[in-house]
Structures are given as structure tokens and as C-alpha cells.
Design a protein that fits this description.
The complex is a heterodimer of chains A (about 425) and B (about 325).
Chain A (H helix, E strand, L loop, with lengths): L1 H16 L6 E2 L2 E3 L6 H22 L7 E2 L2 E3 L4 H11 L12 H14 L3 E2 L17 E2 L5 H15 L8 E7 L2 H4 L2 H11 L2 E7 L7 H10 L3 E5 L3 H12 L7 E3 L19 E4 L8 H11 L14 H24 L6 H8 L3 E2 L1 H6 L9 E2 L12 E6 L4 E4 L8 H18 L8
Parallel strand pairs in A: 1-3, 2-4, 5-6, 7-8, 7-9, 9-10, 10-11
Antiparallel strand pairs in A: 11-14, 12-13, 14-15
Chain B lengths: L2 H34 L6 H16 L6 H8 L12 H22 L9 H23 L16 H7 L16 H23 L1 H11 L1 H6 L4 H27 L9 H11 L4 H21 L9 H15 L14
Helix pairs in contact in B: 1-7, 1-8, 1-10, 1-11, 1-12, 2-4, 2-5, 2-10, 4-10, 7-8, 7-10, 11-12, 11-13, 12-13
The chains are: A alpha/beta (about 425), B mainly alpha (about 325).
Amino acid sequence: MKIKQLATVALTTLAVSAPVAADLVFPSLSYRTGPYAAGGAPLADGYADYFTLLNQRDGGIGGVMASVPECETGYNTAKGVECYESTKGDGALVYMPLSTGMTYQLIPKVTADDIPLVTTGYGRTSAANGRVFSHVFNFPANYWTGASRIINSIMEEAGGDISGKNIALVYHNSGYGKEPIPTLKALAEKHNFNLTLIPVDHPGQEQKSQWLQIRRERPDNIIMYGWGVMNQVALQEAANIRYPMDQMYGIWWSVTENDKLEGMGSHGYKGATFHNVGSNYPIFSDIQKYVTDAGLAAGDGSNVGSVMYNRGLYAAMLAAEAAKTAQNMFGVKDVTSGQMRDAFEVLDMSAEVMAAAGMPNFGPAFQVSCANHGGPGLAAIQQWDGNTQEWKLIGDFEAPDMEVIAPLIKADSEAYAKENNITPRDC
Amino acid sequence: MSADFLYTLEVILNGLMAGVMYSLVALGFVLIFKASGIFNYAQGVMALFAAMTLVGIQTGQIPFAHLINAIFGTEMHHFGWQVPAFLAIILTVGVMVLFAMIVEKYILHHLVNQEPIILFMATIGLAYFMEGFGDIMWGSEIKTMDVGIPSGGSLWLEEYTLGWAAEGERYWGMYIDKLDMVATLVAVILVVSLTLFSQYTKTGRALRAVADDHQAALSVGISLRAIWVIVWSIAGFVALVAGIMWGAKSGVQFSLSLIALKALPVLMLGGFTSIPGAIIGGLIIGVGEKLFEFAIGPMIGGATENWFAYVLALMFLVFRPQGLFGEKIIERV
């Protein structure tokens, strides 16, 4: 009897969770468990809630319902690849793996399977070269443009001249954390500042050596490429040695609601971002009405409007807009992953499109092209306000130093093409 | 004095303090291994679970709120009260004792006389179960540990030592985190208490008897089940102390369970059966890894601490396979 009941429950679960054949399928490779769950859960919630909103409010995308089958990766690259393999056969239109490690593993797979891979704010930076990476998109910003935006902000604060300054990069000792090093080295040469590299091993629970070094050397600014517990420990150690918070910058994975101290402890801490903050946008009232109040929210609602939730929401909006573009381009409702790829390549995220989605100025306006899969790399600076306990944008989305970054992208992507016998596309 | 010398001294002192933090985790492993021969893979997760429970009780969080809300469509998260830190710690100790009783009743009791590897595998299962159970019970978001422990560099010490460096040297005074000082004090009290308990109380002597020979202990009327509950309760208390100290540094979150990784080289070096070994091993690992990172790290790209701790432990193992203070195993034919 028990076995029968279990089998019934299992079959029902499968029937409910498997996407209907005609759905537009947007698999979510999420991480709600493991060391990075605190960031992964709101990210996955935002992604799922956006599609739930479209289904409830608009009847889907172009009249076709969207489904978001979730696969738990635990932020583990091997599990992420398993998730990809187990979900791609369900008609997956696009993958957003939420991990730089997974991105590197999936690049050859998605290219062979003709499925677009979108890595907003992470992944392989040189994938911005669409001539080499036909199926990978990393708009609207990447780790190199983020690093450049932070250096630009430091320059603005210093009156335009940072020659002779000491800037330390405190980074997660992984592929992700090492990504900005070539850019920062090139920028250090261009602007004549001294760059100190301070790696922190995973998970970053113990950073005493690193912060004793910072205390000894007293860099003028710190740039942090951290994730998970590394961020919280770094901020606590920075506060312990009384490092001025307004001279410390994080990349977007280091500036969430999790990355702050109690009270005024991290007041003034800054960071780069490629999307806006807060919940003062029309879409949030729709989410409240059609998703949360209807009991359909992916989470408990407490993360709505948080940095990571907004990032998931933004990523979903980009995917949905690409699906609409594909429907219009090809005149079909049930688009294929190949058509989605083509749509991503002509995606035009204008201010009007974002406003129509209920997210005016939520991210930078940008266009994608066959040659440029990364967009213009616009990023803004956000700052933690200890008084109001919230992040605030303190400037516009601005362009990075492409004079430095473009040659790096070209060199790295061409090296990849050579290693993998890829003939760059002519566009 | 030269600034370089003072900075080296600062690194050594901070290494000692970091070593104490590692020892706090290692102690829990030693207690259980000593009394039952089980390498408790779940010790790190126990520290996480204890810390989550403490914060949950302290902040009046409703256990399993997400589950209750999902099933009944309610919107409950907090009871609306705050529990004083001391009372919350006592209640958490109670939860850890209950946990020890459940582990004994539903896991260990059924595995008496099994091979150590079977018991080890059981603790792996326990660790994964507790990870999920803790998340369901208290949620996976990062929580702030606030039991009144001060943190940050000691201003008094910095100012007092500022003049120690020769004139013109770039020196900012000696830095030691107040949290690390408190942890050291707590570790000393803990080790002295555990040693006194094990040497001078009837239960302590029974624990040692069980550690020496299960069968012989049973034959003189010592209850193995009661001893296991006591040992796991004490290990739960030690896990709580470690969870408080580490949680105060990083917030209470999943990564707290990974502090067990820092305890392994300490155990390899100090021995799996010695409480003083856990302390001395921690101090050697702490100072060794910090000094290596300070002196050699910059030449080879830094981030040496994680692997160097294991290299250091392995070097000791070459000469003393049982660790510095471990019991030498003699098997006679």
C-alpha cells in the first residue's frame, strides 16, 4: 500500500513538474542549498516570479505559457552540468547557469546543442566576442567592464588622477575572482597606479593574514571580488581594522543585502552594478497582485526588491524579451532554442522596452550584435546607506574604458578560437 | 625594535589566536573519537546547527516557519519576543542534549559493534540530514550572531605598542582582535573544565573507561548508551561554543559547517584522542600557516594557508603517525 502511495505521489510530482510540450521552457539552474544558498535563493525566486507574472497577467509570452523547471546545482559545477544534460531535452530555450565555473564547462556544449547561454554579470568575459562565441552572451556588463567602472569611480573621487595610488584587489581564489586581474593590470599600467593582488581561498571563513597585510600596507582603495561568506568576513575584518568603508568597492556579487554589517558598520561601502536597486518600479505592484497575493511566489516574499531578487528578475526579463523578439522575427509562437539565439543577437533593450516591462531605467539601455555579445558594458555604482539600511545608486550607468578592454577581449577570444579550431564568424 | 620584527610578532600572535579557533572545532571531534572511536563527520554541521538554533531562539524565530506557512498558508515568522543571550545559550544546550539522545537512540544504538567505517558513514549521512533539517527549521538566510562578544582591534593595545617601533618606521601598533582574545579565554576555560571533568568525576572516569575498552567498561556496569549520550551532548556543547565564536566572525550561514576543514590538519597533527593535542595542534597549525603566508606567500602568489596546514600536518605524520599526542597503537600477534 505504501509503495503504491509513494508511486502515485512520484508520478503526480513528475506530471506536475515536467513542462508541457507547448510551453516556452526557461530552465533555472538554481542553488538554494549549499554555501551560497543565501544569495542563490532570492536570485532563483526573482527569475521564477517574473515568468509567473507573465503567465498570470499576460497569459504567457505571445500567448504561450512559460515554464521554469528548476534544477538544484548547489553551486557545484559538476551538478550544474548534470542539470544541463537532464533538462536540455525538454525544449530548453536558454540557460543562465549562475556560475562562472559552469559557464566554462557549458560553452562547448551549448554551441553543439544550439542553445544560447546568457551570463549576465559573470562567466567568460571574452565571450563578448560574438564572432568566436556564437552561442554565449554576457550583456549588459562583465567582470572586466565592472573593474574598469570601479577604477573610473576611484578616479572621479580622486579628481581624475590616481597615479602613484595603491589599490588592492581582494579576490576569491577561483576562476571568477581571477577574471579582473588582466584588466586591472592593464589599467594600472595606463593610469600608473600600484596594484596589489590578495587572494582568499574558498570559502573565505578565515582571512586574518589578508587583512593583516592590508593593515600593514594601507592601500588607498580596495576592490573586492568575493562571494558568499568571503564577503561577510572581509567586511567584518575591514571594520575591525577600521578601514574606511567609502574607499572599498565590491563587484556586483559582493554588494548585496547579505554583504553589510549591522548598524553603521559598513556605511559608505560601494560597488559596481549592472541593474538598479530597490522596489520602486511598477512591476513590483504587479508581482504583489498577480504572484505574491495569489500564493504563487517562488519564495516567501521577504526577498522581493533585494539586490539578488532584482538580478533574477532582470535576467528573466532579458530572456522574456528575447523570446518576444524571436516570436516576431520568425512569426511563430513556439520558438526554438536556435531562434532564441538569433533573437539574442539582435536584442534591443531600449528604455522604451524596459518601461513597457514595468522596469524603467532598471538596467542600462543596450543593443546586442553578431560581433558584440556583451553590449557596451555600462555599469553604475551603488552605495550602502547605514542610516536607511539600503543600497542606493549614486550615479548613472556609465561606459567602461573599452580602449583597454576591447584588445583584451580580442586577444583572449582569438586564443580560444585557435585552441578550439573555431573559425571566427564574418560579422 | 624594527617594524618588520613587530609585524612578525603580530603575525605569530594572530596565528596563535587563529589556532585557538581551530582547536575549538577540533575538540568536538576528539571528544567523540576518544569515547567511541567514531570520526564524527557531522561535527562541523553540529556547530552550524547549534549556532542557527541559538540565533533562532534568541530572536524568537518560529521553527519550521517556511514549512508551516507553505502547508497552512499562514504568514508566521517570529513569536515577537527576544530571549536574553544567556537564556538562549542554555536552551540551545538543551536542544543539543536532545539531539545527542536522538542520535544515540536512532543511529548509534543500532550500530553497536559495527566497524568504525560503518559508524563513520552513518555520521556522513547525519551531516547531510542535519544540513537540510537545519535549513528547513531555521531558513538558509544569513543570520547575525550577537551574544555580546566584542570584536575589532584593541585600541588600547594599538596605542600602547605604537611607540615600540624605531622612529620613522611605518608601524601602526599591534593588532589583535578582541573576539580572538575572548575565544582564547573561552578555550582555556573549556579545556581546563573538560580535563577536570574527565579526571575527577565519576562520569569522567566512566568516559575514560569506555574510551579504553568498551567490553571491559560494560562488564563493570557502565552503560554504554548513557556514556554516548553524555559524550555527544558535550560535543554538542563544544560545537555550540565553536559556532558562537565563528558565527560572530562571519554571521551564521551554511559555510560555518565548513570550519571542520580547518580542524582536520589540527587533528592529524595533535592526534585524534588528546584534548591537549587538539589545543597544541591548533596553535602549531595557526602559527605555521600564518607565518608561511606572511613570509613565503607573497613570493608564490598567496592563499597558501589552506594547503600549507595539511602539508604541515603531513610532515608531522611522517615522524609520528599517531599525531603528537595520540595513543600509539600496538597490535600484538
